[in-house]
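Long-time lurker. I teach an intro course on protein structure, and each term I like to show students one example going from raw sequence to a predicted 3D structure in token notation. This year I'd like something fresh instead of my usual example. Would anyone be willing to generate the tokens for the chain below so I can use it in lecture? Attribution to the forum is fine with me.
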Amino acid sequence: MIRSFLINPNKLESLSALSAVYLGCPDEDKFKFGKVYKLQDEHGIINVAILNDSLTAGISCQTALNCAIKNENEPEYIAWKFFDIKEDVNYEGKSYKLIDIISFSDKLLSVGFAYTLNNGAVTQIKGNSPEDAVKEIIKLLKNRKAGQQGILEKFNESNGFFPITLLARKLGVDYYDAWGTIIGNNKLKLNNFSNETSSDKNYILSNDAFCTLGILDATKEIDTSSIIFAKQTKIDIITMLSAKLKNLQDGSIGSLHYEDGKVFRTDYDKDYKKGASCFWGTLLKFVESISEIESDAFISARQEVTNLFIQGNLISERYLLGLAQSDKQSVVVTDEPFICSICELEKIPHISIIDLLFNQNLNHNTILNYLKKLDSFNFLNYFSPKIYKKIVDSAMKLDNENRKSFLGELQKWLIPEKHSEEHCRRIFNTYRELLMEDVNSFYSYTLSDIGRYYFSKLFPEKYQEIIDQLKNIRIEIVPPNDNTDDAEE
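-- Reply from a regular --
Happy to contribute to a lecture. Here you go:
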């Protein structure tokens, strides 16, 4: 980075990254590149930087950081390392008084920090003491948290009908982090659903579907031969992942966030960066392996809908839906409420990421593991009769011992010791839908005990009423009369 800077001293961006590296580096010896000598005569002050040959070899740069740049191996500068302040120094035929000596790294980093602080990319923290600075940091984080919470409340009030792209911009994060918040930490439960039943179409992967696959760590389970990207979507995702990888490489040392009255710090140490770079790199490789299709932008017959995309600068979404409009053999994979609503309005087929996963011919254990993860997400529709049938059918193919073991694990998930109301409702609704399909089916029978249990939890008064009615029922057997052989109750 320093050599790059010396070649083009007008590019100060690299100094910001170098400043971050310097802050996070415990071994400051790595930054001993040379020294800056401040010389004074009757005409004023000049700075001369005597630098390592490793930095200056092959570089014709004459000045940088308002310093003349010289190689320490040049004969006339070899002895400078032995000079002391207040000595007389001869420089380019003139006599100067040496008034100060500082390390080149300090000079370089002071300029780098000044550039970083003044270019609008960071928020400055001021305080007369470290304690005052900490108070300012906490205040800043608290205000930022409150602002983000207010934005999320607006999103929730819209029932999710607010593009995640716009939400991410307002939150000051990328799409991946915004979507992770929506399905993980937010209050709103997403009524994700599908309007397409066919499983023999190509799948157009949306931004949110990709992010969910990443959060689930499920990309290895996907048959990419049936997956396509709208070209703009792929470009946007690759740009986002590349930025995440660059952030790790540029020397970020950690992050702070405010939660429940406390400040938490995440340190980007070596182990963290190893894991994070491997994770983002794997996702990038997955994205690059998927074919992209170029298409026209989405245009609605309703001009106000088209204007909504244009005014919101929703480029990725426009080309995602534009591809779906033109390719009748494909279906959009999305759980984003805004995109789902537009698909419903425009009669565009779409499915949930959950349907995509369970159309991949996964084995019983993999299906159950994904269900356990999805149970903690803000998806209302993560379990359905179709999924339950897939699990049971898969279990029935096992031998007795493995089937018994797996069904035991399934039951632990279906009726855990601690379960949310959403979990109760989803399992009960699946049982109810199975009954409506066929009250005597094998599937409804196997779920009957658990379904009745959740009915008692969700509707205790109604359940007690039925129990009381059953208690009052009397069955009496009487002899048949002369006209019939039937018994009467």
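Some talking points for your students: The longest strand covers residues 94-103. The mean pLDDT is 83.
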